[in-house]
Amino acid sequence: MTLLSIRDLRTYFYTEDGVVRAINGIDLDLEEGETLGIIGETGCGKTMLGLSILRLLSENTKVEGQVLYRGTDLIRLSKAQMRKIRGKEISMIFQNSLSSLNPVLTVGTQLAEPVEMHRHMKKQAAKQRVIEMLKAVKIPSPSDRAVEYPHEFSGGMRQRAMIAMGLACTPSLIIADEPTTGLDVTIQAQIIELLKEVLEQSGASMLLITHNLGVASELCNSIAVMYAGEIIEYAGVIDLFKNPGHPYTRGFFDSLPNRGLKPMPGTCPSMINLPAGCKFHPRCPHASSRCEKEKPDMLKVEEKHHVRCFLYD
Ligand SMILES: Nc1ncnc2c1ncn2[C@@H]1O[C@H](COP(=O)(O)OP(=O)(O)OP(=O)(O)O)[C@@H](O)[C@H]1O
Ligand code: NI
Which residues lie in coiled coils (predicted)? Predict the structure, then answer.
């Protein structure tokens, strides 16, 4: 069953400098129980995609298209209806756990909040649930830790607490934005193991936003590669690593430390002045005059492997 269907999603910011086109027509399907990775260079719109799905954007933003969650278009829900979905049906685990947690509230109080709100639990029951949650993410002495403040937690423990918060109301979909970034390698591995375990136990689907390909390969079934607010390649995880099709994906892989550290020439285009045609053409070693004028569709190179590039036309 398809849990989430995104159709022609577009997210624009209206700024003094002009319109920032952060998401430019994204189509994606996420199946029940699937983990889909969203990868790409910094600034390509990964976080904006997550925030657009949950409608966590500021007033100067316009979101167009459809985000169908179990057939309901989230874009068209009222703010009150959206609040009922957020945290309960779909939750988000953010990049920086220190800035996402409130420094003046204990970890336990913060974890209890969504439980009390969505599950209508009384204070005492919610407290019990918080301790269970901390236990589930393997935080030692959970009842002692629940009364501590975020700064008393180490980075790894805080990220565990964030995951616990994301799971508090047993959501069907978790959007995790760089859940291991900033943690040292050993802790990173522990958090990946923990995410694997919780996904297996809960059966939840996950949209995993990351530029860490190691993390993506450990957790994802399939991967969508983003460039300048578009998906330019989509494939099963093994297929993508074996046969990256888009010149951007290949360049991105080659630029990584474990794959040669060969820097890709140029930078991501400004989202205010996007190039015509294929948005990657100014940086592409294979660009032809067609690429300057025409935007390629997603072309099928193999079963479940699509690439937005005329090389496959
Ligand atoms: N509030 C805002 N107003 C205007 N532009 C914004 C705003 N927030 C983000 N942007 C722009 O939207 C684009 C996409 O940003 P986004 O944060 O989604 O990138 P990202 O892929 O998540 O990058 P990173 O890997 O660094 O987290 C960027 O060009 C950014 O400058
Ligand atoms: Ni981001």
Answer: none
State pTM to two decimals.
Answer: 0.93
Spatial CB neighbours of 298, under 8 Å, sequence gap ≥ 6: 27, 231, 234, 306, 307, 308
Residue 193 and residue 128 share a domain: no
Domain boundary among 150, 169, 188: 169
Over residues 82-111, the mean pLDDT reads 87
Whether residues 183 and 252 fall in one domain? yes
Helices (H) and strands (E) in the chain, counts: 12, 12
Assess whether 114 and 223 both reside in one domain: no
Number of domains in the chain: 2
Q: How far is the CA of 313 from the centre of ligand 1 (A)?
A: 31
Compute the radius of gyration of the chain from its Cα atoms.
Answer: 20
In the structure, what pLDDT confidence band is assigned to residue 75 with cuts at 50, 70 and 90? Answer: very high
Q: How far is CA 289 from CA 98, 297, 310, in A?
A: 48, 16, 11
Boundaries of domain holding 124:
89-169
- ipTM of this complex > 0.90? yes
For 26, 103, 240, 278, 312, the CA distances from 301, given in Å and listed in that order, are 19, 49, 11, 18, 7
Q: Give me the mean pLDDT over the 84-90 stretch.
A: 91
Residues, CB-to-ion distance under 5 Å, ligand 2: 46-47
Residue 260, burial from CB neighbour count under 10 angstroms (0-12, 13-18, 19+): exposed
The answer to whether the beta carbons of residues 283 and 249 sit under 8 Å apart is no
Residues in the chain, total: 313
Give yes or no: residues 258 and 206 share one domain. yes
Task: Tell me: do 232 and 114 sit in the same domain.
Answer: no
Cβ(47) – ligand 1 distance below 6 Å = yes
Of 259, 155, 162, 269, nearest to 212 by C-alpha is 259
Alpha carbons 40 and 219: distance in angstroms, whole number: 16
Residues 74 and 184 in one domain: yes
Is 298 part of any domain?
Answer: no
